[in-house]
Amino acid sequence: MASVTTHDHAHDHGHDHDHHGPGPWTRIFTTTNHKDIGSMYLWFSLLMFFVGGAMALLIRAELFTPGLQVVQPEVFNSLTTVHALVMIFGAVMPAFVGFANWLIPLQIGAADMAFPRMNNWSFWLMIPATVLLMASFFVPGGAAASGWTLYPPLSTQGGIGVDMTIIAIHILGASSIMGSINIITTILNMRAPGMTLMRMPMFVWTWLITAYLIIAVMPVLAGCITMLLTDRHFGTAFFNAAGGGDPTMFMHIFWFFGHPEVYILILPAFGIMSQIIPTFSRKPLFGYASMVYATASIAILSFIVWGHHMFTVGMPAAGQLFFMYATMLIAVPTGVKIFNWIATMWRGSITFETPMLFAIGFLCMFTLGGFSGLVLSIVPVDITLHNTYYVVAHFHYVLFPGAIWALMAGVYFWLPKWTGRMYNETLGKWHFWLSAISFNVTFFPQHFLGLAGMPRRIPDYALQFAEWNMISTIGAFALGFSQLLFVYNVFSCIRSGEKAKERQWDSADSLEWTHLPSPVPYHTFEMPPDLRGAKAVH
Amino acid sequence: MSVVADDVDVVTPAEVRENNRTTLKKLLLILPVMLAFCLSLVPLYRQICEVLGITATRAVAENTQVDRSRIVKVDFDASLHGGFAWKFVPVDKRVEIHPGEMVTIHYRVTNALPYATTGRAVPSFAPVEAGLFFSKIECFCFSNQTLQAGESREMPVTFFIDPKLPAKIGSIGLSYYFFDVTEEMKKAPKDPA
Amino acid sequence: MKSINANGQQHALAALARSVSIGLTFLVSPATALAAYDVNIAAPASPISSQIYGLHMYILYVCAAIFVVVFALMFYSIFKFRRSNGSKPDVNFHESTLIEIIWTVIPFVILLFMAIPATKTVLDMKDTTNPDMTVKVTGYQWGWRYDYAAEEVGFYSSLSTPWSQIGQPGEKATEEKGKDYLLEVDNPMVVPVGKRVRLLVTSNDVIHGWYVPQLGVNQYGIPGFVKDVWFKADKVGTFKGQCSQICGKLHGYMPITVVVKSEADYAKWVAEAKARWGAAPAAAAAATPAAVATPEPGKPLTLVDLKAAGEKVYAANCVTCHQASGKGMPPTFPALSGSKVVLGPTEGQINILLNGKPGTAMASFARLSDFEIAAVMTYTKNSWDNSTGKFVTPDDIKAKRKS
């Protein structure tokens, strides 16, 4: 078989299994190529990012001034619920799986994922799930309106929309589990000779750990919402005190899933950061081994901190103290990561292309989000801030500049490799600065709102909260519309960007930059590269 | 058909089939093991609870000394869930007892409705930790109570407080919640409890 | 109407201008902005909330110090080690066990210094020595009920801001928003100053959160369980809060007001409250606010009797949404006067009363007795503009319940 490195990826019919030349539509449905599937994940998550964003803007529009102007309160509740579910399960997780699909085989020197057909299926499962979730807005009773945490008994009250949400989450969970099995198998079995575990790029490491987290907690979520479903329809009483159950148990089970989920959303972001920062500092990542250990310990600690979401349920002091100490402890490995990134930049030779700007933005904002997390970990302070806008500000600080900016930085970073073309640098910088400013205008005032006691998930508020809410809404619209620049930049890059070099970023040293042309061909590493004796790549 | 190169082992279709068959056999073997494990969880759970002493039916006749040096206030509270149209009140609102001392108090429940209804009570403690030191000898909780139209009933609760109760707990609230389970009873006439 | 709308617009414009000016002031001089607007936890009014306030400030200062150090290092490296500055990468500087140990141990020590005062406050909050009084707090969709066990007083407390100030999508508020918009209640909870008040927090339907930041209390009320929490107000005054846990449609509209009075004033209030609400013993009243006497068996029911009984049921259960005038507050709360459902077949109306109407605020009222439902239906069919002359019997309801 001849080498295929010269084939253009979109028109590659040179392969055995492509002999019949499937049309573009057949290819979309039947493709088992990790690059195709990775792209589909990324496009899908971009779409869902805007769907979830539109909901966020509706929420902010309602909160522009006191009083009810835009939506009815129950629709508002549905919007906050589905916004969260769409962003978590529809935007951030699929986007990271998209990156995993694209990059893991390239970075470990494998030809494809371990289970290509399952890979295809885990993507296509997401479509009916999302349709189900979105369709729940149009059924009698409306979409689930109990917050994404679906606490019973409120969620037992809802209509068929809640059942649709439960089924949708089930399917999305199954998709994530399949994706994770695929990723773990690929990483553990398909590394090129010489690519030892401790030589893998950080992105691969963080995904390996994340995949284990997903496999550990997604079944817990599935069990949890199944119990909810049987409580709703089949007369069980898991969460109903009348039958000896307890709504508090739902919270425990849910957050046993929910807290590791937070790290599922952020660990791969750490991985992307650990690729970008060394590249633009032109230095190897500082403390590679300690980064791996820090990631693993964050993942392990994430299983014993769930109680910090429930300090106000009436937990005994011993429980509160345990969860407080465990939560505070997470600050240590997270701090190690931040310090390692700063040390990577130290004595480097830094340039500020768009991916690096987003990475530095990530560092600053994520650190701030970490501080508010530390404040919230203190039980007495949490009691006064629980379920207020302070919490909203906190998790948007860690998830927007954390997960979303990492994803955007990653897209800018790898676009030249994926498409063979460069994005518009000026536009990218505009995108960064507009996002950075409007993000802070949106979410910084929410700290004040929370401290002043404004509860979250309310469609209307007292007059003392009016000013900050108005500022926040203005910021939110600016933030939302700045993201259109990103879409434009990606499209124009694909259509008419300048040709990218094979090694667009001079000191990027993972295999996709050192061993493959830009754009990467449709099939890569059919012969695994022999890396034995090569110098470490991370 | 397959990609063949010098340093890649050639795997024939027959070998692939053989491999797949082995995998299938292994998987089929795992299946009953998993099933058995799932089913064994129920007795295992019971065993573990018994061994660790986390059962609802704790040893009743613990030989406890009455601690005359302390007085604990116990407040009794009654609630009805979701507008359940019964009347439910503690006859004794508060007792002050020594830890270890056995007492009986009463609640009164009345069915104000013109037809028979069934309720089930669930206890809860404030603070939660107090529940660990609260031993109920007699109680009406978790069992169904059917009251005819207009019927009124006094229900006793006999309990003592473990002298090991931490010193910082000076006051305990015992609350019962009555739930309307009339509909549930109609659906399942044989109550497992 | 027109002038009010103009007012509303002016109000919005003024708020916008204010927002912009705060934003600018904040950029120019944070201190002024901080002084003028709510940017911190409200002034504490209990020993625990004072501790919380102090703890928050302490953590904030520690974080600010770490922030300065971390960001200084970060920005120093960004400026110093720019390539445009001629910086050459020192590729060998990528590992140092000593540094790694230092920046693992230092944060750990800092955390210890945070954990110690926090632990003390946690233990103080959980101090369960004898309270001076106990109030049971029950969350409802959407309001609160306070039962004073010893005083034998119990009452409901719900939002008193009229819907005419709130407005509807596509329908402007017809009244200027008041000073305590959404934070005012009809019957506030009243407690004496300087007494340890134990709250037994619970809920009648879904999870609610009783949250009054100035008293340092935020406690979920969980249906079927009673959770205890306490506070001691150390000054006389009025303290506001809101439900902190999403509890359905009107979650944003169930505020909490606690009025702390001097001992003498509190005694006066108790006397008044007993006169007003004392008759209803706590738990019994939780069932149906105005329990209607059921008729003697065998006696034939008349429209007049049913309507009279129905008026009470209506006042207790329906009036908040559908209003005394029967005109409701459309579109959220439709009018019953002239309503097709009320004037139409009995079946449909019974169905809505028993099962609620999914997707709307109309909950199931199956908890009411057959007689009560029959009575309130008869009332609605024969009040305001409705004069059907029809009445509904408890048997009709019973039949429907069974089917």
CATH superfamily of chain A: Cytochrome c oxidase-like, subunit I domain
Average pLDDT score of chain C: 82
CATH superfamily (homologous) name of the largest domain in chain C: Cupredoxins -  blue copper proteins
Q: Oligomeric form of this entry?
A: heterotrimer
Q: Over all CA atoms, what is the radius of gyration of chain C?
A: 29 Å
**At the first level of CATH, what is the class of chain A?**
Mainly Alpha
- Structural class of chain C, by secondary structure, is alpha+beta
Please indicate the count of domains of chain A: 1
Average pLDDT metric of chain A = 92
Question: CATH class of the largest domain in chain C, anyone?
Answer: Mainly Beta
The largest interface is: A-C, 108 and 109 residues
* Strand percent estimate of chain A: under 5%
Number of domains of chain C: 4
Q: Largest sheet of chain C, order of strands side by side?
A: 3-2-1-5-8
Number of strands of chain C: 10
Structure description:
The complex is a heterotrimer of chains A (538), B (193) and C (403). Chain A has 538 residues and is mostly helical. Chain A has helices spanning 24-30, 34-62, 73-108, 116-124, 126-135, 154-157, 160-189, 202-233, 247-281, 288-301, 317-345, 354-377, 379-385, 389-419, 425-451, 466-496, 511-514. Chain B is α+β, with helices and mostly antiparallel strands. Chain B folds into 2 domains: 1-55; 72-187, Ctag/Cox11 (Ctag/Cox11 (Pfam 04442)), CATH 2.60.370.10. Chain B has helices at residues 13-52, 182-187, and strands spanning 72-80, 86-90, 94-97, 103-111, 117-126, 134-138, 144-147, 152-161, 171-180. The longest helix of chain B has 40 residues, at 13-52. The radius of gyration of chain B is 29 Å and the shape is elongated. Chain C folds into 4 domains: 2-35; 47-125, Helix Hairpins; 133-287, Cupredoxins -  blue copper proteins (Immunoglobulin-like, Sandwich), CATH 2.60.40.420; 303-402, Orthogonal Bundle (Cytochrome Bc1 Complex, Chain D, domain 2). Chain C has helices spanning 2-28, 30-36, 47-80, 97-125, 163-166, 263-277, 282-287, 303-317, 319-322, 340-343, 346-355, 370-381, 394-402; strands at residues 133-140, 143-148, 153-157, 189-192, 196-203, 208-212, 217-221, 227-232, 237-243, 255-261. In chain C, the strands form 2 sheets. A 5-stranded mixed β-sheet of chain C has the order 3-2-1-5-8. Chain C has a 5-stranded mixed β-sheet with strand order 4-10-9-6-7. The radius of gyration of chain C is 29 Å and the shape is elongated. The relative contact order of chain C is 0.09. Chains in contact: A-B, A-C, B-C.
